[in-house]
Amino acid sequence: MKLGVIAANGKAGRVIVEEAVSRNIDVTAIVRGENKTAAKSMIQKDLFDLTYEDVKEFDVLIDAFGAWTPETLPQHTTSLLYLSDILSGKPNRLLVVGGAGGLYTDSSHTTRLMDGKDFPEAFYPLASSMSDSLDALRKRSDVNWTYVSPAADFRADGERTGDYLLRGEEFSVNEKGESFISYKDYAIAMIDEALSGKHVQERISVLSK
Fold it and tell me: Where in this chain does the record put each NAD(P)-binding domain (predicted)?
């Protein structure tokens, strides 16, 4: 399998590349600047300048792009739509590093985690923009996408336990009533999905045991 990781220099991107390299997967970092990852191959290009010619060799593209400021938050949606247009009707798969705020808290899938009264107000704009991007992605039946949501507590410096729980659209907790996962364990789940391709055109979620 050939794998490309967009925004590979970011926190999530770098850990995903490291996990792929540790499994001897042929991985290429797609970055705007110098390659700061463990990948030996790189494409130096902005996401919005990519063409299908740039990515056609990759069986799977992992999109680890993130935007954090008020003026850039809409790029969560515009970037996914751009990549969807590139991959429209193509066999390549697109895996997206998603957010947890849009996970449903009811079986009817009408209420989201971010709609709860205890959801941190400071995180709402980011959660809302990422949820909007998933809504846009759901409309693309012409793309082999998979959206991977982390647990509510996504720990950049957490340890690699080597294990995780795979869940679906609904917010869930482990046996201790906790919802967290480290970037390193999330990367394991992401690479597992890249290899298996079991959840095309689905949102899945992962958390630590």
Answer: 8-168
